[in-house]
């Protein structure tokens, strides 16, 4: 798949079939993710891929984020229908058979932490695009960060910080295409 096609067609998926993606497909996705650039090539990231019972236990933990999310959604005046959708998604991550969590090294000093976060984000976007190229759906998620301590404990990565998680699986519902805002881009010196 052409890189422009992947960038434009990737969407956030929130409903999945139960079919488990083959191990070799997931390995290709992870391999592509790991080719992301990173500050000083530190590659200070770790990826946890979960399926089966571990996935179920992890999703159970994530669903606890709903109680923190709901007040935020209300405050942001998200319509009730939208709130229901978010709650439903967080309950079972759309039934995705695989969940991937990415953690990165803790570097409290600035700008080192910013570099780590940006490197992790590059890895995460690679992961999402490669998954899309493999016909898999994903959804970048930071909505469970209120449970970061509990999540890191679950993953056995207490020395790290949580970057994001994503459900992974074959999509069961074509998601809408959220429009992009027309931003001003300045071309100087041309
Ligand atoms: C940093 C980041 C955090 C996000 N967190 C969540 C989340 O917690 N839950 C969720 O359903 N979607 C989450 N999203 C997905 C966005 O809602 C989505 O990317 C946006 O609406 C555009 O839709 P698209 O990805 O289909 O193009 C997140 C996206 C990013 C980049």
Write up what this structure looks like.
- With 190 residues, the protein is α+β, with helices and mostly antiparallel strands.
- It has a single domain (3-169), classed as NADH Oxidase (3-Layer(aba) Sandwich).
- The mean pLDDT is 95.
- It has seven helices and four strands; from the N terminus they run ααβαααβαβαβ.
- It has a four-stranded antiparallel β-sheet with strand order 1-2-4-3.
- The radius of gyration is 17 Å and the shape is globular.
- The chain binds flavin mononucleotide (FMN).
- The site of flavin mononucleotide has 11 residues, from loops.
* Name given to the CATH homologous superfamily: NADH Oxidase
Number of helices: 7
Number of domains: 1
Number of DSSP strand runs: 4
Characterize the main sheet. Answer: 4 strands, antiparallel
Which H/E pattern describes the elements? HHEHHHEHEHE
Unreliable stretches covering 5 or more consecutive residues? none
The residue fraction in helices comes out at: 40-55%
Content-based structural category: alpha+beta
CATH class: Alpha Beta
- The shape, in one word, is globular
Q: Provide the list of bound ligands, each named once.
A: flavin mononucleotide
Give the CATH topology. Answer: NADH Oxidase
Oligomer: single chain
Kindly estimate the percentage of residues that lie in beta strands according to DSSP: 5-15%
Q: Kindly report the spatial arrangement of strands forming the biggest sheet.
A: 1-2-4-3
Q: Mean pLDDT score, rounded?
A: 95
| Radius of gyration based on Cα positions | 17 Å
First-to-last CA distance: 32 Å
CATH architecture: 3-Layer(aba) Sandwich
